[in-house]
Amino acid sequence: MILDGKLVAQKVLDEVRAGVARLSEQAGLQPRLAAVLVGDFAPSRIYVGNKMKAAAAVGIASEDHVHPGGLDRAALLALLGRLSADPAVHAILLQLPLPRGLDEDEMLAAIAPEKDVDGLHPANLGALLAGTPTVVPCTPAGCLEILDHYGATLEGAEAVVVGRSRLVGKPLAQLLLARHATVTMCHTRTRDLAAHTRRADVLCVAAGRAGVITGDMVKEGAWVVDVGVNRLETGKLAGDVEFASAEKRAHAITPVPGGVGPMTVAMLLRNTLRAAERRAARR
Ligand code: NAP
User: Fold this and answer.
1) Which of 28, 44, 103, 212 is the most exposed place for a label (fewest CB within 10 A)?
2) Closest residue CA from atom 42 of ligand 1
C-alpha cells in the first residue's frame, strides 16, 4: 500500500480551512503567521514561499520578513522579540538553517513558546519529553498523522527511527513512545543498522542519505515512513529508502515525493490555527 501524503495533507488542510472560518465567525480573529528568512539559501526561499502560499489557500494571513543580505545577532533577536510581543501575530516560523554565525538554539529560544509554530523551542520540546505535548514539531506530527490515517497499529509495535535530529528523529521517537511503541533510535554510530531495521514493524527514516535503507533491511509486512529528501545527480528527488526494493517487502510505504513532504506544511498550518485558537481563548 502506498501511503499518500498528498491525500492526508489535503484532509488536514480542509480541517484547518474549516477551523479558520469557525474562528473568524466565533471570535472575529484571523490566524496570522510570520515567517522569518535570513540569508540567501535558495531551497529555504522556496520552502517559505510554499508555506505562505499554502497559508493563503486556507485563509491564514501571513507576513514574511526576508533578509537575503543577512541579519546580525542583535537585529534577529530584536525581530523575534518584536514578533513575539506583537498581539496580531499568532505564529512565528524561523526558517532553518540559519547562516553561519547565528546560533540556532539561541534564536529558537527567543521565540515566544506559544507562537513557536515548529515546536522547536526548548519549552515545547521539553513538554513533549514530559508527556504533556504543547506544539509538536511539524514533520514528526505529519508522520504520525499518515500512520493514523491508514490505521497502523503503534501500541506494542517495534518502531525504529533512523536519525536523531532535533527537527525530526528525536521528537518522532517521543511521539511513537507516547503511543506505546517500543522505540529504537539509530544514528551514524549504530553498529549494525540492518539488524535493527529488520525488526521494525514501523520503520521511520530521517537520515538524509539516499538509499540508506534497502529492501533487504525492511521487515516483511512493515510500515515504512521515509522522511528523507535527497536531490540525486539526475536532478530527481529521492528518499532515504530504496523505494523499488522496499515496496516489495513493506505492507505500506510513503513515496518521495508525495509522502511526508506535503504533511509538513499541513501540520505547520494546523499549528498556526491552534496558536490562534489559544490566543482567542485567552482574550
Ligand atoms: P540531520 O539533522 O542531518 O540528521 C540526520 C540524522 O540521521 C542524524 O541523526 C544522523 O546521525 C543520522 N544519519 C545520517 N546518516 C546515517 C546513516 N548512514 N545511518 C544511520 N543514521 C544516519 O537531518 P534532518 O534535519 O533530521 O533531516 C533528515 C532528512 O529528512 C533530510 O533528508 C531532510 O531533507 C529530510 N526532511 C524532510 C522533511 C519533509 O518535510 N519531508 C522535513 C525535515 C527534514 P548522527 O546524529 O550520528 O550524525
Assistant:
1) 28
2) 139
